[in-house]
Amino acid sequence: MKRSLTVILWIAVIISGAAFIIRPKADEPVPYPDGFRKWTHIKTGLIGPGSAGFKSTGGFHHIYANDKAMQGYASGYFPQGSIFVFDLIEGIEVDGNTAEGKRRQVDVMMKDSLRFPSTGGWGYEEFKGSSKTDRVLSETGRTGCFSCHTKQADYIFSELRD
Q1: Confidence class for position 19, pLDDT limits 50, 70, 90
Q2: Confidence of residue 144 (pLDDT cuts 50, 70, 90)
Q3: Which DSSP helix (H) or strand (E) runs through 103?
């Protein structure tokens, strides 16, 4: 009996130690979402020259979701590991047609309640242009993202269209 109890206690110590080692740190930065263009494309918006926001956010706004986020669209609740990408590409007008230009930024929204407890379980990041390392958001910027997203159900603006 005493030996069994000792073995059980050692197993508990090993499991809790392993969970501590592999658990990400709170507020660890959102990583660049490699391969996101192969995820499900949710929709595209276009901000044209007639918009007041054209100078800063003009162009094509492509939204992508990973498999976990797609489960959230089906259930109405986005599970841990859901990731959304907002891919902003400049719009260039040529002879009355709008074509894609250079990438302006890649915004990422990732659900991980352990890493991002202060922002409703969602982490936010913005990468400049096509860089996978040049992060743009400050802590104030991340808080701003969260403040705006709190107005939406489960913090998500986009809806999956038929």
Answers
A1: very low
A2: confident
A3: strand 97-111
Confidence class for position 152, pLDDT limits 50, 70, 90: confident
Instruction: Identify the CA nearest to 59 among candidates 95, 109, 123, 106.
Output: 106
Tell me if 89 sits within 8 A of 124, measured CB to CB: no
Which fold does the domain 25-155 belong to in CATH?
Answer: Chalcone isomerase (3.50.70)
Residue 112 phi/psi, 5-degree rounding, is -160, 95
| pLDDT interval class at 105 (50, 70, 90) | very high
Gap between the Cα atoms of 56 and 68, Å rounded: 31
3-state secondary structure of 28: coil
Contact 106, 88 (CB under 8 A): yes
Domain ranges of the chain: 25-155
Mean pLDDT on 54-67: 93
Q: How far apart are CA 1 and CA 40, in angstroms?
A: 54
Cα distance between residue 125 and residue 115, in whole Å: 13
Q: What is the mean pLDDT of residues 10-22?
A: 52
Euclidean distance between CA atoms 138 and 128, whole angstroms: 13
Cα–Cα dist 44/60, whole Å: 7
